[in-house]
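hey m, so remember when u said the tokens were messed up on ur end? i reran from scratch. heres the input so u can diff it against urs
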Amino acid sequence: MSITIARIVGSNSHIDYIGRVIDTLDVETPPTKDDFGFAQFVQMDSIVGVIYDSKLINPEYASFGPRLSPRPALGSFSPDYINEQGILLGILLLGTIDGDGLVEHGVPRSIIPPGQEIVKLDYMSSKRFHAKGGSTVHLGYYPQVIAHAGEFAVPLLSAIIDGLCPDCSEIDRERLRVLKHSLQWQRTIGGMKL
């Protein structure tokens, strides 16, 4: 069963999209926080992405004035009152899975329209996306993550590797461990001020 977690509301670039998590105003049973965590793979039609950032929106934060009514009463006194608080997700596009199951890692050609549903990628689809039709784990989107995820690139790749390791062959597990250690070393050296 696919779980819709958000809808596209904007983009920062061709591969960096913004989704707003759906809530009780959108559906009766909204997704839980476990459905849209950091490094969660998602799908928008045939396009696959990963959640790499989040932002809370709360327009009421700077509103220090007195309230005439408690929050629950606002709905009955002012039916047009809308809860504008929410969660925005940064989604980095990684590739595609077409209708025939063909997987491509890289920049998708398609543009995702506003309002497009963002669905949590299920376990089998994630496994298929990383196997690319074979049995070896592939991270062909690695350069995209390094180039576009900014300060989240290393933690994102580390989280992805941690998620992939338990379910892959020992050879792949060793390759992924080496990659993770290399990323951590580069981050340590890169973070040093000389």
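this time it looks ok to me. Strands lie at 4-11, 16-21, 41-44, 47-57, 86-97, 103-105, 117-120. if urs says something different then somethings off w ur setup not the seq
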